[in-house]
Structure formats: C-alpha cells, structure tokens
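Appendix B. Chain record.
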Amino acid sequence: MSARQGPCFIPEQLREGLVPHKPAILQVIMSQHADLFMPIASVWDVKLKAIRQHRSQGRHTADSDRVVERIARENGARIGVPVAEAFRVLRPT
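Structure tokens predicted for this chain:
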C-alpha cells in the first residue's frame, strides 16, 4: 500500500463526489536527511508524557527518556535552540 492510493482505492467515495486528498507536503520524522527543524521546548514535558504512554514499545523507561532527550538536544543544536524535532520534507508529485 502506498501513502497515496489511486482513484480505485475507495470507489464509493468517488461516486459520492469526494476527491482524494493530496497533501502539499509530507513531514517524515526520524529521517537521516532532515531538512526542517521545529523548536519544541515549549511542549517538551507534554512530548515526554506522550512518549511514555507507549509502554508496549518500551518507551516508559529512564533509558528511553535519555535517548529521546539526546536526539532532541542534537536536533536543537543544529538550529541553536535547546531541543527540536527534525523532519524530512517531501513534496508529492
């Protein structure tokens, strides 16, 4: 399955007059080729709380917190802020 399905994916919606959504950009997280950095210091505590809810993925441990913080600080250093989220921007054709 691709990110953008063809017109036959949900034919009943096309018959109802709905058109497929085509986003202007996609922001992919955890890319080795990030080209968009967003400061997240104002939501840092909320982000950590949310990540800790992924208990089945082992994201509720102190080790996980340290890894997430290290990555956020490395991303932040790239744009001169304490912590940041990094994305690769893709523009669909």
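Further analysis of this model is presented in Appendix C.
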